[in-house]
Amino acid sequence: MSIFEQRESAIKAYCRVYPTVFDKADNARQTDENGKQYIDFFAGAGVLNFGHNNQRMTAAVVDYLQSGGVIHSLDMHTTAKRRYMEHFTETILKPRNMTHRLQFMGPTGTNSVEAAMKLARRATGRQDIVAFSHGFHGMTLGALSATANQYFRNAAGVPLNHVKHFAFGCDKPCPGCELGCGMNSIDQLRAIYTDSSSGIAPPAAFLLETIQAEGGVKVADKDWIQALAQLAKEVGSLLIVDDIQVGMGRTGSFFSFDDLDIDPDIVCLAKGIGGLGTPMAMNLVKPEFDDHWSPGEHTGTFRGQNLSFVAGDVALDYFDDDALMNKVRQDGETVLKKLQPLAEQHDAINITGKGMIVGLDVGDGDLAKKIVAQCFDQGLLIASCGTGGRVVKLIPPLTIPDEDLQQGLDILAKVTDSVMHMEAAA
Amino acid sequence: MSIFEQRESAIKAYCRVYPTVFDKADNARQTDENGKQYIDFFAGAGVLNFGHNNQRMTAAVVDYLQSGGVIHSLDMHTTAKRRYMEHFTETILKPRNMTHRLQFMGPTGTNSVEAAMKLARRATGRQDIVAFSHGFHGMTLGALSATANQYFRNAAGVPLNHVKHFAFGCDKPCPGCELGCGMNSIDQLRAIYTDSSSGIAPPAAFLLETIQAEGGVKVADKDWIQALAQLAKEVGSLLIVDDIQVGMGRTGSFFSFDDLDIDPDIVCLAKGIGGLGTPMAMNLVKPEFDDHWSPGEHTGTFRGQNLSFVAGDVALDYFDDDALMNKVRQDGETVLKKLQPLAEQHDAINITGKGMIVGLDVGDGDLAKKIVAQCFDQGLLIASCGTGGRVVKLIPPLTIPDEDLQQGLDILAKVTDSVMHMEAAA
Amino acid sequence: MSIFEQRESAIKAYCRVYPTVFDKADNARQTDENGKQYIDFFAGAGVLNFGHNNQRMTAAVVDYLQSGGVIHSLDMHTTAKRRYMEHFTETILKPRNMTHRLQFMGPTGTNSVEAAMKLARRATGRQDIVAFSHGFHGMTLGALSATANQYFRNAAGVPLNHVKHFAFGCDKPCPGCELGCGMNSIDQLRAIYTDSSSGIAPPAAFLLETIQAEGGVKVADKDWIQALAQLAKEVGSLLIVDDIQVGMGRTGSFFSFDDLDIDPDIVCLAKGIGGLGTPMAMNLVKPEFDDHWSPGEHTGTFRGQNLSFVAGDVALDYFDDDALMNKVRQDGETVLKKLQPLAEQHDAINITGKGMIVGLDVGDGDLAKKIVAQCFDQGLLIASCGTGGRVVKLIPPLTIPDEDLQQGLDILAKVTDSVMHMEAAA
Amino acid sequence: MSIFEQRESAIKAYCRVYPTVFDKADNARQTDENGKQYIDFFAGAGVLNFGHNNQRMTAAVVDYLQSGGVIHSLDMHTTAKRRYMEHFTETILKPRNMTHRLQFMGPTGTNSVEAAMKLARRATGRQDIVAFSHGFHGMTLGALSATANQYFRNAAGVPLNHVKHFAFGCDKPCPGCELGCGMNSIDQLRAIYTDSSSGIAPPAAFLLETIQAEGGVKVADKDWIQALAQLAKEVGSLLIVDDIQVGMGRTGSFFSFDDLDIDPDIVCLAKGIGGLGTPMAMNLVKPEFDDHWSPGEHTGTFRGQNLSFVAGDVALDYFDDDALMNKVRQDGETVLKKLQPLAEQHDAINITGKGMIVGLDVGDGDLAKKIVAQCFDQGLLIASCGTGGRVVKLIPPLTIPDEDLQQGLDILAKVTDSVMHMEAAA
Q1: Nearest Cα residue to D129 out of D162, D167, D168
Q2: Which of C284, C300, C317 is the last residue of a domain?
Q3: Are residues A274 and A222 in the same domain?
Q4: One GO molecular function term (chains A, B, C, D) (predicted)?
Q5: A50 to chain B nearest CA, in Å?
Q6: CA proximity to A138, closest of B109, B162, B147, B301
Q7: Is residue A202 classed as helix, strand or coil in its secondary structure?
Q8: How far does C111 lie from chain B, in Å, by closest CA?
Q9: Hey, of B136, B170, B197, which one would you mutate to test binding to chain D, going by the most D CBs within 10 A of its CB?
Q10: Of all helices (H) and strands (E), which one includes residue B238?
Q11: Backbone angles phi, psi at A124, to 5 degrees
Q12: I need a surface site. Which of B188, C57, C266, D189 has the fewest CB within 10 A?
């Protein structure tokens, strides 16, 4: 028995899907200890936007380590943190006229969501947060209350209160979903929050992803999200965008909402912002709300991750010009072009997405599972998401070489076609 | 205005206490950008047990980065993770006959506590957790419910339910504390849990630190903690030890409870286990409880931190022999010998601790604040904790050179003596 | 200063609306201490279905008192209780093939709702209850969680959890209401409860009034309520009908749902069932759910109100034949005929109702208040309800003499017309 | 099968203990339908302080009914209500210099507790209420949170939050109880509420019975209750006395706390105040807290029970002079004199109480059950209470004739002695 069999917790999951031991990694490829290579369309669940072991970043980190730079600093000031904050402000915030401040917390996405929820409650004096069906926001108790999936919710062991879920406003109907999303949901929400006998009081905040990644790559309708932002203002609620998985360039611009004409009060970031896959989380908060914090009210030991500042600083270079974002948009089209024929051939298949996050809804979790397993056998790492795991999700490194993208798509298309045909024949 | 003034969140705290910008660090010393050196008795809030930029670790990490090892792996298997798990099992668990499994989660202490609470609730079908006054367990909503400090609790914005607090069993009375700790508290707890009309039902778990670090370096009485462990068994509750700050060698052996004759069902670890200050968290869970997990029920993006596995693996070397632990015990005595005269001269001063965590209770938060500030001016980083911040806490790197320890103690003793005299004169 | 000014709690409310001191009452009339008579269209908030001081009932109660019958009996058996239970079973349950058992509890409507909620949670092992916007179910903490009105909810002082509110399915659109009621709400609910990522798990029960009385006389659509009952079965939830205000003959048959083809698992009754206005509450519970109770789990001192059994027994006589119910239906038509012209003359007016509960929505709470006040001056007791108090509600005694009904309607019509014209002129 | 077997809810309880059908009642005697008479030491769970069918009261009620007085009036003013309020103010409040206002609510004890909890939360802006182990405060969700007994709590089906339980300060140690009551519990509470790191914030109110009736006739120590009242003031919490079972003369004066030198902010009354056993509940509230109510925030249909005002007014006559209270104190001594020998003969027996509430703790619920059953057979109605039902509780009508009291005590003493001897022999 290996040590994994002997001693690893029964909670292990991805290692069941990808039953091997990985040893090396480079950009969009991982190599296991037997030397077998895999193209990676999963990218560490959306962390590795700039590829495994991005060489510009590893070089910077090695330099930093060898120079004796401070590695761990809580929320003390360091020169590395200053460089990161200046770069982020100049490259990302100022061009967008965003006045937001930067808050660092425990280096996990769930922690950034917890901090955002706390602040919204503090700033409004209200308790309820509105989140949306199919939303995913994390696993710690506060964030879990906002996560919609019952499998995760059932693990809480206590009631998950103070969050209400409503239907998400997808940009087009999802097959099999009758939650009633779309524009009329906003009118209903407004009616609920302005009728003092609805039983439901206005929330501290509306918390949402612009694209529900774990929820099955559900893309918010632009009109819907604008109307929601407007409603939030009307009823005195904050708008919190959880851009943890789809921010940092994933959709073809830094923020997923850059083309949505909304102005979130808080933006939650994590995953990709540390560049190299070392942990980091950061909230962008408008000063008028940030001022509600008292010093140290939401602490955490690993707030000052200087290796992440160093690698994250290199990552910001990718946003100093348009090269990578152009590639993302082009690659996104390449993906759609390759997958669209599948949707035309198989009625059950539905394709959603934006930039380099694409969902291939095959209508059934068991089918998706087969596709994922056969892809793995053929050297492609890919994962499923959505209700019952029915959506195969593509989130490769944004830096993926063309040939890797093509090869990965070839495997995926062939496997999917074969699995769907076998299903139809059965 | 610096970027910190312009853009850093109002929540910032330690940088207010240490108003400078750090640039380099080496073992027990940090250097700011003006070249001023500081001896570090704070060690990143107990993370850097093996010193800043421990050279054996940075070398291993640099090698790993240059060899193209997998950096980020979620909960997939990697060769680095295997090495870590094997080393931990051989060095730490087997010699203690501990059958516990290793669970990795989001790399923060708060996340490990959340996971432990979930599992205890799942395994018992109960909701309440018992935690203790002055306990600190984290900032996310589940862990925050167990954290006692009102300043942190008030930031929740929602009621913190499903945790009940009782008095902690200190090994000696704390000046000014009348919470009624000590052995009789166990009889009271047993009475509460066996009287069906007490209004309080038996909990899923008792969650405690053996030494309440943030709570003011309160050391649990050995008889009390054994009786508590016994009570937990009697009433069908799990015993969870949060060893996040005082484990990993801090008290002179790997676990803080190695000499307490208790057998915790779950041990929460974080902070020091990543060796270098890169994030990592791990729970040790008895198999009979671990089996209650279903795959992936408590996930998190940054579960597979291979740089932490690599550095953490080097950290485990320190436990292959007794050298470091012997030094910790000796240094602990050195500290006490140096500080004891202060307690003899100043009635208000009370000293607690074990190994290399020592608390200097000066009886008043404002005095402690002055001491911390004057130490900073004189080149010593140290922090306060406990109710109202009245306890100056010493948690230097375990690897601190003798001369740094002496020099730091000299500063601390002199500053404390001077502040206490001025106070007496005022 | 009167004793009321000196010593009555600031919470007093109806006595502010009707500023006099009542002395005598008889069927549909009350007389104040100055001898002024009032026609009563309010009937003790729907308690006095059989009129004030119903002479058959007072005679029976006087006889009972003079014979030394047991007055207070907790849940012990008495001969009076037996007579009541037998009469109720023969007259009400058996003709409808209802197998329900009778549960008596603390003699308030809110207590019957609390008991129903407890039992539904016990029987299903679930925590959430679904209630509906504009629903009213009581003031104690459990029932208050289901009551929609924010004014009442705000008085709780603690979060009201474990109840979710959805839009009620009115039989026609209510002016100014955009909550999105109607048939499609059922499809949405079904989608929510069958999508494991909606964030919302199936409830223990759906709790509703067939006509939301306090909510503004909103009448449920028959198709909607049948679909809801069907959905409850599909998702394993109980159907609880709160018939406290609109049962007991108010709509023209004993239960408000007699013509709706639904089969509620629990029916909550109170108000009118004690006949004379002495307190009593009773739940009808299907045996398969009732069996989940253990003895005495939901107790209450005043469960055995024998004066209410005696008067309530006389009240059941009214259901041994069709005379009263025919009168109710005819009187209901008389009311509508009289009020309909108001709706035709004033756009703002909307009329809803069934049998002898009729709502006159005048579109604005201040207008309704004026109407209520002028009616009082002219000798008519009537009250307003609904969001902001915009609906004038008619719930006279079912036994009201024709001339009193006519006279009351004359006052109401004239006052309303005058107030609406003055408003239009302003 | 009788109608009770066919149709009464499985929740029935007292009718299982007293398996007969009662028909008549007079002062301290009930007669079943077979003509068998029972002496009543239970008095409707403490409702019938003035005896079954008190003739002065039934006469007044019959007069009132025959005169056409208003029976049901919500919170409108009636002449009967005025008489009651004036009498109560003159006889009870003014002689004690109590400025309290009278608040009427739904006519159950649980409802009065709910109202008190709401108001305390409103007035302080805090959520937690402190209640005490073995306390009983009702069955609706808010009051149930304060009730200690797990059997009742388990029926809630949802977590009971926002109430914390501490050990009650009995005037002498209870056999088998190790909850640690007594004076030191106050110091512990003060420590908890003044230590900002205890994990427990000061409550909105301390809610307690001066004698825990259902909890096993546990009498509060006078020093303890005064210290608690003092602590409440110090930490800004209200003091709420639930005098529902032990007020209204039960202990030998109107309030149970008349000799305790405390000044409660809210007093909850119900049970006996309606005189005849018709429902009524009333809170006495200091004006400075009562002013926090907005009109109608805590409503209820049966707030204006004029039959209870009429009978309750007669009941107040008993407090216009000292005759009845003198009798209560004398009868209390008679009871103790009769029972004391039992305690001397049987080690397991412990006697507690004050005035005409006396507990005979026989050490074991099964023994108490046998005693209750044999007493019933021999014509004595008596009930058990306390943890596991181990305490036989005597609460006869205060108006009990001497011969009935003697005869009842004879039965009880003989039965108890016999059961205890058989137990000892077994």
Answers
A1: D162
A2: C317
A3: yes
A4: pyridoxal phosphate binding
A5: 12
A6: B301
A7: coil
A8: 22
A9: B197
A10: strand B238-242
A11: -105, -15
A12: B188
B191 inside 8 A of chain D by CB: yes
- The domain tally of chain A equals 2
**Chains contacting D (3 or more CB pairs within 8 Å):** A, B, C
Asked whether the beta carbons of residue B148 and residue D199 sit closer than 8 angstroms, the reply is yes
Structural domain containing residue A34: 3-54+322-425
Kindly state whether residues B351 and B391 are assigned to the same domain. Answer: yes
Q: Of B317, B332, B356, which one is at a domain's C-terminal end?
A: B317
- C177, pLDDT greater than 90: no
Nearest to B108 among A111, A278, A285 (CB): A111
Q: How large is the average pLDDT for residues A196-217?
A: 97
Chain A residues touching residue C161 (CB < 8 angstroms): 159, 161-162
Question: How far is the C-alpha of A139 from the C-alpha of C200, rounded, in Å?
Answer: 17
Same domain, B24 and B154: no
Q: Which residues of D touch C283 (CB under 8 A)?
A: 9
Question: Tens of pLDDT along A363-379?
Answer: 999 999 999 999 999 99
Q: What is the pLDDT of residues D97-153, one digit of tens each?
A: 999 999 999 999 999 999 999 999 999 999 999 999 999 999 999 999 999 999 999
pLDDT for A178 equals 78
Please tell me whether residues C100 and C245 are part of one structural domain. yes
Query: What's the CATH number where B132 sits?
Result: 3.40.640.10
Interchain pair B135, D199: CB under 8 A: yes
Phi, psi of A201 (to 5 degrees): -90, 155
Least CB-CB distance to C199: which of A133, A187, A195? A133
CB-based contact, C287 to chain B, within 8 Å? no
Task: Write out pLDDT tens, residues D15-58.
Answer: 999 999 999 999 999 999 999 999 999 999 999 999 999 999 99
B partners (3+ CB pairs within 8 A) are: A, C, D
Looking at the fold, whether D226 and D364 belong to one and the same domain comes out as no
Mean pLDDT of C403-412: 98
Tokens at residue C19, please?
């500023």
Q: What is the mean pLDDT of residues A313-336?
A: 98
Taking a C-beta distance cutoff of 8 angstroms, is the pair C204, C121 a contact? yes
Q: Report the mean per-residue pLDDT for chain A.
A: 96
Q: Cβ contacts (< 8 Å) between C158 and chain B: which residues?
A: 159
For Cα atoms C94, C100, C101, give the angle at the middle one, nearest 5 degrees: 110
Q: Which helix (H) or strand (E) holds A64?
A: helix A55-66
Interface of B with A in 144-183 (CB under 8 A): 145, 151-152, 154-158, 161-162
Contact B158 C159 (CB under 8 A): yes
**φ, ψ of residue B39 in degrees (nearest 5):** -80, 140
Residue B172 has what pLDDT?
86
For the record, the structure tokens of B136 come out as 């600190």
**Mean pLDDT for chain B overall:** 96
Complex ipTM: 0.97
Helix A55-66 and helix A306-317, axial crossing angle in degrees, nearest 10: 140
Question: Is the model's pLDDT at C110 over the cut of 90?
Answer: yes
Q: Would you call D197 and B162 a contact, using CB atoms and an 8 Å cutoff?
A: no
Decide: helix, strand or coil at residue A209. coil
Hey, are the CB atoms on B102 and A9 less than 8 Å from each other?
A: yes
pLDDT for D402 beyond 70: yes
Please indicate, yes or no, whether residues C202 and C169 belong to a single structural domain of this protein: yes
Tell whether C52 is within 8 A of chain D (Cβ).
yes
Res D182: pLDDT: 66
Which tens digits make up the pLDDT trace of B265-295?
A: 999 999 999 999 999 999 999 999 999 999 9
Of D198, D187, D192, D265, the C-alpha closest to D224 is D187
Q: Which of B78-82, B195-199, B401-405, C123-127 shows the lowest per-residue confidence on average (mean pLDDT)?
A: B195-199
Give the minimum alpha-carbon distance from A419 to chain B in angstroms, rounded to a whole number: 25
Does the structure show a pLDDT above 70 at B182?
no
Q: Are C273 and C48 in contact (CB under 8 A)?
A: no
CATH of the domain at A7: 3.90.1150.10
Same domain, D311 and D330: no
Q: What would the mean pLDDT of A87-116 be, rounded to a whole number?
A: 98
